[in-house]
Amino acid sequence: MTTTSTAAETTRQRSVVPGYLRPAPKAVLKIPAAGWTAAVIVLAVLVVEMYARSPLASPLDIVPVSDMAATALQLMTDPDFLVDALGRTLGIIVVAFVLSSLLGIGAAYLLWRFDVWDRAFQPYLNVYYAVPTFALYPIMVVLFGSGIAPIAILSTIFAFGVVAMNARTGFNSVSPIVAKLGSTLRLTRWQYFRSILLPYALPNIVTGLKLGLSYAIISVLASEFILSTQGLGHYISIAYDSFDIAEMYAGILVVTALALLATLGISAALNRFDWRRRR
User: What's the predicted TM-score (pTM) here?
Assistant: First the structure.
């Protein structure tokens, strides 16, 4: 009887704990999160494959996933595609991501360091993404000519805002008590940045960098699709205009795999620095 009452009391105590304080379940129906992710992908692939092979689908609308994968594998063995399309796009993404990360974190630190600047530029940061970035492309062409430079600059500008805003939030999250502690310990500016400011801001900086990579990928591919005469986005655009559906979907599949691997890789690398995710 005592054991039963104790179990019931324990159940009642657990039930009153708010949901946001309960630890996330490691598995649902004995399947971990990674298993559910794989199951959703497999299900989506099967649905598209069956629909594409059914009489309901037109070959001008969609092709089976197996045909997409076969064409994508052929593209990955084509030296011209690897150099002129994939390699060019990857290079611009890396440049845009690195520049937007450095400039965004640096700008956020300056806004945190000088309160007047922070208050002066806050309205512009709030409406940053309301500005049509691609409308600046003609200006970039006039200033830097056609080619890689305008796309890299546009993509850097596009990814800069999300990195800067997240880093700024991180720098502003330092508790006033902790800041006073740094003053009490008479830390130098570098010691304060290294020991207090950066650890506090790092989780938000990591989030901004992961989002910045996604924004850089989107911006580069969209710019190449609309404005460029080379690159992976331009390859997909040409395949679309020429009704080469298999080539178009193969390019989209390469883009999807590229974005997935890039985001998973940068997330795995940066999460090591996020102390909120440590167990």
Answer: 0.78
